[in-house]
Amino acid sequence: VHFLQQTIDAMDAGEDLTELGYHLPELPVEPHLGKMVLCGVVLKCLDPVLTIACALACRDAFVLPSAASQKRAALLCRKRFAAGTFSDHMAVLRAFQVLVLPRQHITPQSKWCTSPVGWMLDRLSQIRANVARYCPLLASGFVRARGGADIRDVNTNSENWAVIKAALVAGAYPHVVHVDRENLVLTEAKEKKVRFHPTSVLSQAQFKKV
Predict the structure, then answer these.
(1) Is 110 or 54 the better-scoring residue by pLDDT?
(2) pLDDT tens digits along 58-81
(3) SS3 assignment, position 11
(4) Quick check: 60 and 119 in contact, CB under 8 A?
(5) Burial zone of 129 (CB within 10 Å; 0-12 exposed, 13-18 middle, 19+ buried)
(6) Which residues contact 81 (CB under 8 A, 6 or more apart)?
(7) Does the keyword Nucleotide-binding apply (predicted)?
(8) 3-class secondary structure, 23
(9) Where are the domains of the chain?
C-alpha cells in the first residue's frame, strides 16, 4: 500500500502523506482516479477529466451486445465518437456530452447509439454526480495548499485535448504505455509487449498515427 501511495506521489519517502495524499481519501474513487481528477483541477480541465475518470471507475460504456449486427453498430459508434483522435477516452467523453443533453438536443447520431450505450452512460452519470459533490471544497483546499487561490476557472482548458491528456497521464502513471516506433511494439513498465483490446478504437488504427 505504501509503495502504491509513493508511486502516485500520495506519500513521501518518509512515509508521510503529501498534500495529494491528504485529499485523495475524500474522493469516492480509487486513488489514481482521484489524482486524475485533482490534476484536472490544477490544469483547469476538470469537467472532461471528471467524466473520463468516472468512466474508468465503472464498466465500459460501450459494452458490446451479443448480436453481431448490434456489436458492429456499437464498435462503429465508439469509432465515430472518437472523431479521429484514436482515443477510447475521447469516445466516452463525447458520448457522455451528447447523450446527457436534454432530449431536444439529441442528434440522429446519438439516437443511433442510444441503445448499446445508454444504460451504461446513465450509470456513469450517477457516479459522476456523486464524485462531483466533493470537488468544489476539495479542489479549493488542494489548490490553496499548492500556493494557488483561485479555482473559479477550473474549466479554462476543458476544450484543449492536449491538456486533458496530460491530466489523464498524470493520474494513470505508472501504468502508461510507451510506443516503440522503431520496433513497432508497445511496452509498459511490467510488460515487454502490450496489445490493444480488440474493441478499442486503437486496435485497427495505423500504428504511425498512435
Answers:
(1) 54
(2) 866 666 666 777 777 777 878 888
(3) strand
(4) no
(5) exposed
(6) 90, 91, 92, 94, 95, 98, 113
(7) yes
(8) helix
(9) 2-176, 177-210
